[in-house]
Design brief:
single chain; alpha/beta; 5-stranded mixed beta sheet; about 35% helix; about 15% strand
């Protein structure tokens, strides 16, 4: 796939639902599917159905079974176009915008959006080197209410970011030591330098085997040499701008899905191929 993948490229690749089904078949069976009769290069699409049939025995398989498209009556081309729109947007695409672009109902657009987010999972090993750990709060502003830590109407999100590398973020019940420390232990190699603000929850880092460096935000100290949390704070800013500007409101129940989307987008920021290439390659995920 090209470095830049435009709507013109998309329309050339996927002119019909049959083209979309052929793509899903290829992703699902990259080495070819073997029929129960033992034949391999024997499959042909069945007209007006989402199945391929064996030319020898008539056995049929459905490339969409178990995928995010399973049991959906929405056009497969529309599904892939929704993936294209979402992957090409820095700030995400709302269900209302998908409704306008695809000509489907709002309920269908909302479901498609969440199904596609299931594919937006970022893996990888533990972080090392210089790692930034921080927390943020997502939610509406209540007039006269407390801002930031301790706010009753906001949801905490904790995260770690490898300087120059990936980010990991998780919706949390609170920002206490019993919450933030297990997250760091699970995602950061022992011996790494962990930069944080002065939140007391990070106090056990040195005893846990990390090199702990702090900046005192309360004293208006934000950078001291290479000690800062500016990188992860930049990620939080992008996350909040996108939620506030595109989605306006996200419930606590679904917040992790949105966080995963922007973690996924951030972690692919340095790749030469378009995000759509990575996302569409996951359409055969049977656990979506």
């Amino acid at each position: 796939m090209k470095t830049k993948y435009t709507v013109k490229d998309f329309n050339a690749d996927y002119q019909t639902d049959a083209d979309a089904l052929a793509f899903i078949f290829k992703m699902r069976y990259p080495n070819g599917a073997t029929c129960k009769c033992g034949k391999k290069d024997c499959w042909h699409p069945v007209k007006n159905r989402r199945v391929y049939e064996c030319a020898w025995c008539g056995y049929q398989i459905s490339p969409t079974a178990g995928t995010i498209f399973h049991k959906s009556s929405t056009s497969l081309k529309s599904w892939l176009f929704a993936m294209f729109l979402i992957s090409n947007s820095k700030n995400g695409v709302s269900a209302m915008e998908l409704q306008r672009q695809l000509g489907v109902t709002y309920k269908t657009a909302w479901r498609m959006n969440h199904q596609i987010r299931k594919l937006m999972q970022s893996g990888g090993g533990k972080m090392s080197g210089i790692v930034e750990a921080d927390e943020t709060y997502i939610g509406g502003v209540r007039r006269g209410g407390k801002r930031g830590r301790g706010s009753e109407n906001k949801t905490p999100v904790i995260g770690v970011l490898e300087r120059g590398g990936n980010v990991q973020a998780k919706v949390a019940a609170n920002v206490k030591t019993v919450t933030v420390m297990p997250n760091i232990l699970a995602n950061v190699e022992k011996g790494a330098t962990v930069c944080t603000d002065e939140l007391w929850s990070y106090n056990p880092l040195t005893k846990a085997g990390y090199k702990h460096q702090r900046v005192g935000h309360a004293a208006r100290e934000y950078v001291r040499g290479n000690v800062h949390t500016n990188s992860i704070e930049g990620f939080w800013s992008q996350l909040k701008r996108s939620i506030n500007g595109t989605f306006h409101h996200v419930s606590r129940q679904h917040l992790q899905k949105y966080v995963n989307e922007f973690v996924y987008r951030y972690n692919l920021r340095g790749t030469e191929s378009p995000i759509f290439a990575d996302l569409s390659a996951k359409v055969a995920d049977l656990h979506a």
